[in-house]
Each structure stands twice: as structure tokens, then as C-alpha cells.
Amino acid sequence: MSHNFSPLNSPRSKTTRTTTQFNSEYQQAIFYIRYNIKTILRLVSNDLNNEDCMISSKDLSILQIILRPEIQKGKNNNNKINLSQYSQLFNNPQQKISAKVLSEYLTNTLSMNETQDNIVYIQGLTKSVMCKDEKSCENQDLRIVNCEDSYLYIDSYVYNLSISNCINMNIFVSAVQKICTIDKCENVNIVVASSFIRIGNTIDSTIHYYGSFNPVLYGDNRSINLAPHNGNYIELLEKVKLAKIPVCYKNCQMFQSPFVMNQNQCLGYQIMSLKDFFCINLPLQFRVIPYQYLVSFENVLNLEKQIQELKNNYQNNNNNKVVLPILAPNEYREHIIQRFQKYQELQNNIINCGLNENQQKLLQDAIQGYFREWMVQTGQIKPISDLVKMINQD
């Protein structure tokens, strides 16, 4: 404990105010849960007015979004054990336990000391491109800290994801089983499927999100652009299912309705418009699902058989065709299709004009000029120029 002399205290008073000091955000979170565990249990029981309400095993399992049973003996242990089984207080699924008993048990069980066994750090990345697969971070807590001017692609599902103090980053993470936290970041572009996402104290950033719950915005956010998930590769749905995130149309739309934890809910964010939405361009090892399988979300729900066929007989013949996102609402994918059709129509018109070599060069210069102007106005030119510089350095 440390002593803080409040200006509200009299200069002659010997009374001091004390505040608890934490070594990590983990300790701060556990302290908050311990202090408020009785209220939290009443919330999950839907019996707010009863201080000693009865909690079912199903009610307790809701807390797995914030509490993780220490059941893993190895990194790849995927035994399905929930909190009620781990606590051993419930003899059968129908049994109910007093909130008082559960609060005492949880308070005594929660440790303030964070174990490092299930944590993977990526920190200090600068002007780099990094790809990681399930061998390094599957089912782990992934923490991306103090990275800047880089591209990071995680082809794996992780347990929790924390992105903090990052600047000018492009980050793709296949799936997060529990909570994705984005805090104190600037000018980041993040694509993630997660059970839950929270965004705080972040500015000038775009978050492409698919998940089970509405996003939560807290703290001092400015110019946050919330958008649909825009990823496309064969193993994406498999990773989402491994992370126990349901594949349903409702989850595609969660990005549109955030909970804003401040008084003025209109400030700090906007929803990405159709015209600004594009599919993310992933590295070549992320094999694209052809557009004909993804024309609507209804096609996505019946992809299991086709995906197995694509894995066995993959051919990258999608280079000259439209790439559609897997987990975006239908209106966004339809807009991409319409945009591609207009491009094809324009291309055919140019071919049919019979331009000579000089006319073709003039037209090409004009198109490139307008394209560069669009890239500068929208800010799209910076990540591309940075990537070209990194390639030239290599």
C-alpha cells in the first residue's frame, strides 16, 4: 500500500488516503473481481436484489469469459472442463449453490500471482512482417506490446488476446476464445474473431470484428472505425470453431452495436461505410476460398464439405477474381461483388475501344494518377509505401 495525500484533506490533518498498487493489469483485474464477486454472482443469477441468491452450474459457467480454470497440464490439452466441474461444488447440473458459499470459494481460489506458463509475448516489433502459426501460440494468452510500423499475422486460435501501446500496426488474428483487449493504441488496423472485444484509449484505428458479444468501448477513444470481419482463407472457420465462437449471421452484425462506457455515446467511433470496405490481403500461405462459395452467408453455413475438398485439391486460381470475406454481413459482400462487376465492365470497355499504344499509355497514366490521389486522400498509401520499403530493405 502507498500513501497519497489528497488535496481534499486538511493540511493539519494526519489522515492519509491509501491506494492499492498493482504490479500488472492481471492483479488489478483479479482485485476488482474479488472485491465485486458478490455483485457479479447476483448478475449472472438474474436475482440482483437477493444478496444470498442461488447459483446454478450454468450460471457459474458464464464467468468463464473472465475466469480460466487452471486445468491445463500441457499446451494442447483441450479437455472441456467448465468452472462448475473445476470447483467440485456441484454434484449434478441441476444443483444450486448459495452465492455466499461460491463467493468465499472464488475469493480464496483466485490467485494474485500470474503464472507465465500460458502466456506468449510479441513485443518491440519494429518495421517487420511476422507470421505465426498454432505451434507457437495455440490456446495461449497472446500479448502484443509496444510494436510499431509492422505487419503481424497469427494463423491460430488463442485463448485471450491483448494488444497495447502499439502504433501503425496491421494485425490479423484468426480467433480468440475469450477476450480481445485493445488498449492505448494509435493508427492500428486489426482483424479478429473473438467471443468478446473491448477497446480503450485508442485513436485513429480500424477494428474488423466478428464475435458473440457487442464490442465495449471505454476510456478516451477517438476516431475508432468499427467494421465487419474481412478475412478469407480456408482454415478460418476451423479456427473460429476451435475457439468455440458460434458461426451464425447474428455474430456478423455485432460490430454495429457497441456499448460505449461514457456519457456521450456518439463520440469516439463510427461504423465503416460500404464503399470503404475491402477484403484483407493475407500472405500466400493463407489459401483463399474461391468467391463462388461465399456469395451469401447462407453459403458459408454449408461450407464444411467444400472446405475439405479445397484442402485436398487447392489451386490458387482466384488471382483475377473477386475475393469475398467469409464472416461479413451480406450487404458488405454484395457491395464488393458490385464493385468488381463495375471494374470488369470498365476493363471490357477499354479493351473494346481499340486504343493505340500512345492512347493506352495516356489512359494508364490518368488512371494511376487518380488512383494515387485516392490513396493519399484516404491514407491508404502509407501502409503500402512502408511495406515496399521493408521489402526493398530485405
Automatic annotation (TrEMBL):
Keywords: Transferase. Gene3D superfamilies: 2.160.20.70. The keyword Nucleotide-binding does not apply. GO terms for molecular function: protein histidine kinase activity; protein serine/threonine kinase activity. Its EC number is 2.7.11.1, 2.7.13.3. Pfam families: TBCC. SUPFAM superfamilies: C-terminal domain of adenylylcyclase associated protein. The keyword GTP-binding does not apply. Residues 93-242 form the C-CAP/cofactor C-like domain. Belongs to the TBCC family. This is Tubulin-specific chaperone c, putative. It comes from Ichthyophthirius multifiliis.
